[in-house]
Design goal:
The complex is a heterodimer of chains A (about 300) and B (about 550). With about 300 residues, chain A is mainly α. Chain A is built from 14 helices and no strands. Chain B contains 17 helices and 19 strands. The chains are: A mainly alpha (about 300), B alpha+beta (about 550).
Amino acid sequence: MLRFALNRLLQAIPVLLIVISATFLLVHSAPGGPFSADKAVPPEVIKALEAQYNLDQPLWQQYVSYLSDVVRGDFGPSFKYSGRSVNELIAAGLPATAELALYAMLVALIIGISAGVAAAMRPNTLQDYLPMSAAMIGICMPSFLFGPLMVLVFGIHLEWLPVSGWGDMPGDKILPSITLGTGYAAYIARLSRGGMLEVLSQDYIRTARAKGLSEPLIIIKHALRGGLIPVVAFLGPAFAGLLGGSFVVETIFQIPGLGRFYVQAAFNRDYTMILGMTIFFATLIILFNLLSDMLAIWLNPKLRHQAGGRD
Amino acid sequence: MKRQESGSIFTLCSVYAFTLLSVLTLSGCGASENNVSAGNRSGTLHWGNGTEPQSLDPHIATGVPEHKIITALMEGLVLKDSKTLEPRPGVATSWDISDDGRVYTFYLRKNARWSNGDPHNAHDYVWSWWRALQPALGNLYAYMYFSIDNAKEYYEGSIKDFDRVGVKALDDFTLQVRLKNPTPYFLQLLDHYSLYPVHRPTVEKFGAADERGTRWTYEGNLVGNGAFQLLEWKINRRVVVERNPYYWDSENVRLNKIVFYPTENAITEERMFRAGQLHYSGTVPADKIAAYQSRKDPALHIDPYLGIYFYRINTRVPQLQDKRVRRALGMTIDRDQITQRILKAGQIPAYAMTPPNTMGYFPESDLQFNPQAARELLAEAGYPNGEGFPVTEILYNTSEGHRKIAVAIQQMWKKHLNIDVKLLNQEWKVYLNSVNVSDYEIARAGWIGDYVDPNNFLDMFLCNGGNNRTGWCNADYDQLILDAAPSAKSHAERLAIFTRAEKMLLEDMPVIPIYIYTSNKLVNPSVKNFSDNILNQPSFKEIYLEAEEEEDH
């Protein structure tokens, strides 16, 4: 297992290098620079600014010095937010984004697994069709529609929940978490239904039933572990996706997270910010994929054997 | 078996019920007092401020959201009346203007203090203005200083000695400013944040005076001289300012705190306003305006704004070199239709570049919607009934509003002139680049005045003007703006010169004026003493909060 993890981490280095190089080239080749503005910028000012951010050096030299900074864990200064470093901005946005992703994941798991399991227990009946149709709607409904809808109902008409903010007012974390989590809940519901259906048809479940175990016991003790493997495999990428893809929800609910920075950085041509965020998210995706693979191996004896065999 | 299944369904149902219940219980706590009613009691104004400020350094910042926060934290020599925009005493109690209009002497108040209690005097201005003119600082508003004698020369490096620039502290409380030419709008400039003083010890504590992006403006560091002081700056969350006890007019400041929210999205901001989380929202989504208007909501404020929406014409493009063609294009835009059918928020059709009543100036314009005359002009230029006119492109930055207007104009030109127009939208920075390098044929543009004077709209189109970007150059026009207007003997004569210049501009039509902006905002009725003005500049020191009675329950 350790060797498996180390192996995967080593593989991540060239992946990251390619990500950095491609992003670096792309951002520098996009038309318009970080300092172009609606009002004419005097040439003296452009010169002073470019010198300050080393943009007056040849591109390869910028690339090399950027890489050496990144290796030291320094993503450089933001071009747009004068005086703030990219590290500082990521640190400022990460807690909200991570917390949101975590709650959204919880929402997704609670709703998704219970709906999936319920559906799998009586396939092709109303108990199956109802949650699965709901899941289909959940997958299809974009968060920019679902979020404002929730706000309209719970925030503005019923006045039960705040319409925006993060940690400013009690209850302001509920709507964003549900909005972000629902789409993923739908995927999880479908995955767990499929997984559970497969497991429930296996011999050892029939044996358990024959032994006269109660259905909840069979589900919880015997079926879930095997039935949820597809869900576990999905968790890593899903969590990374939640972290990186919360831009829309962050915008709707005015959440001070990373997603907004990421999108704004691209609009502003904030080179260091785009690069820093891309590297950060790439690393997260690699790590979460690794974690979820390790979890899947741990859950599935067959895979465990394979990974162990390689050891 | 059946019983077992129904048992499990029961378990699942109870999980759902539990989730739902916990949401409801938590939401029960959520139904607490909203920001507006809490703020009304504590004197805290909740202000929707657009975007996260890039910088709170008055010599670096450029945007409107930054402007709002900085005017709360800092103050110039002169303030503007929040209604009439007439000059009012700020840090200077009074001033003399020499007979030739070139020397201003300001008498500073002796009780002015920085927010840390330090005395605030005339030397602060000399140092701050020196700092603002350091090219390394990258001050995009340095040109606001160029009416001061030798300021431009110093900034561009042809003069090295700052003593030759026309600003001098005669003593601790007397500041003398010498101008290059009489500049009637000079007092107005002093209320622009780029001319605000900064606290030297604080700036120098965190880096060199001309170093960009030091931490002196951050929470816990910033020292200002305004009615409020910085309490908190949480990135992407809020900027909070509180009353500055050292402010000279502190006893007349009625708000205790202002919370500025960086709401990137206008729709979110409008929802926050509706839910009582904001007292003020600076933008109203265009689609929502009609709803507010139809129920006559007192929160909706629509006021004229000192800004113009126009199209630039690249006069280097072969088919657009002939001014008759440009005039024909300008004469076939039905501005009433655009403002009434598309924009629908009180915008004023524009037939000249300067908004009407800018410092008493009403531009005279012979531009009209006249398709018949336009067709004749186009025929004279060699394109009878639009025949042979090459397909021309309108460039705009990506936005639904710009697209709608471009589509309407595309149709108007097809209908009235029978010419074909393509539309091209580009993302903001790409668009800026295209316009800057003149890689466009016709491009959408907007201009918001920094100060209320025709000069601010007309000096854009000088031959070497950085914001001209049309390739149009007229030496007579330059002479009027650069020489004749500044040396005019009277206000009336000066305005007459601007009228001549503007006529010249419209006659050649390198730009097609389309409409005058309005500022649309939502203001909670509990916000009192809020004045609308054409600069859309609030006076935070005057605003106070008073709850409406029906809100108390």
